[in-house]
Amino acid sequence: MTSRLHLDKHQASTTGLTISRRTRYASMKKIACALTLALCLGFTGSALAQGAATTVQGNDEKLAVTFRETRAAAERGEAAAQNSLGEMYAEGRGITRDIAQAVTWFRKAADQGYAEAQFNLGLVYDNGLGVAQDDAQALAWYRKAAEQGYAEAQFNLGVMYDNGQGIAQDDAQALAWYRKAAEQGYAKAQFNLAVMYDNGQGIAQDDAQALAWYRKAAEQGYAKAQFNLAAMYDNGQGVAQDDVQAVHWYRKAADQGNAVAQTSLGWAYLNGRGIARDDAQAVAWFRKAADQGFAPAQSNLGVMYKNSRGVARDDTQAVNWYRKAADQGFAPAQSNLAGMYEDGRGVAQDDAQAANWYRKAADQGEVNGQYNLGVMYREGRGVAKDDAQAVYWSRKAADQGDADGQYNLGLMYANGHGVAQDDAQAVVWLRKAADQRHARAQSKLGLMYANGRGVARNDAQAVGWFFKAAEQGDASAQYLLGVMYREGRSVTQSDARAAALFRKAADQGDADAQDALRKMVASSRDLSKQPR
What we know:
532 residues; mainly alpha; Serine Threonine Protein Phosphatase 5, Tetratricopeptide repeat; two-stranded antiparallel ribbon; 64% helix; disordered C terminus
């Protein structure tokens, strides 16, 4: 699923390079499916995995009576009572918490074939509670319970096969045990089974099956499944695209505190997808996720503060939230924080810090960091000027399809900066950017055609590209197109049209256009100046 880049793409021109300090929102799509299945684990059935504090509940007479009665039944050899007694020791209910005693009683019940006790004994070995951690023993006891149809044991056995924990990794076995638990209605198993269908892990990829199992778990209130079901509606994966349904399921997960869903719900409010646009609500949901330490939400909250969306502009707060996310290694936030240092917003202007944070983002493959680091090397800001490094980082961004990076790389080939001069390569990269409607690249590509650099001279192609850029308001293209009209190159000669185009460019401060316009006013003769 693709991330969406939005907002704050302000540009300036220095030595022909485009500078773009682009602020990036983080859009969360199917994050749960990108996580390892181990993160879906949440052992249930016993408090053993929760690490409850040691307490004495004996002053509660009812609990004390229950404990005595349970112990008496356990000592008579009743397996259910032995398991319950183990849980009371494990949780400190009616007695001082004692994990060793819990293990003793779980074992007594497990040895009688009591499935829940076998599962609990698997848990203590799995987590090293009261016994040495032992994957083989955990696996053995989970299997005993699972083979009796105990759903939670089937799920945990599936997880162990999935992760290769205590046994060789085996997707087919993981799938089989997840299915057994899922068919009993166990939500976590339904979710993991859906993930395997979603990713084609151990089985042919099947969006319809993934959707069906996500829905089963989601309808039981399982937040991760609600999120992934929302994402499938959001992306039209296995179901007709439906923003309203996406928001419905994001909200269910978000209301349970799922940070990824809260971020996605904030995104929906921000963009008015499936719900009325509401920047204040976007801020509220981003904040809920950010307060849980979720880096993408922290970065997005920073963007909201920076751009006065749903909250008063506060550059200090923007920097604060960017930094929280950046310190977690979240690359878009690192790039955004670099931009604040570069601009001196919310922090003292510091090119060295800007370059440092751009590099952190760039090293993770974040395209804005790569592009901006290339610009800093080209201009020698925060780092020693180095055209070769500028080419290196511009190429990294360009290879990811970044139009600004493609444009800059094209210019560097055209000018022989940091790379051997090569007009043909310049045309290749300029065309890539131009095809993405990059106005300056369109203008420069037109000029290459007008002058026959890297391509055969072709005035019709030149005019076509000048038109595309001029329609986007590019002053250089307006001037160059004016020259083509003034000289009648592949267009019908027209001083009036030339003058109109020169005026548009001149109004934007283009010096060549201003000079051409002055000369046209002073003389009725056409100028002989050729396209640059």
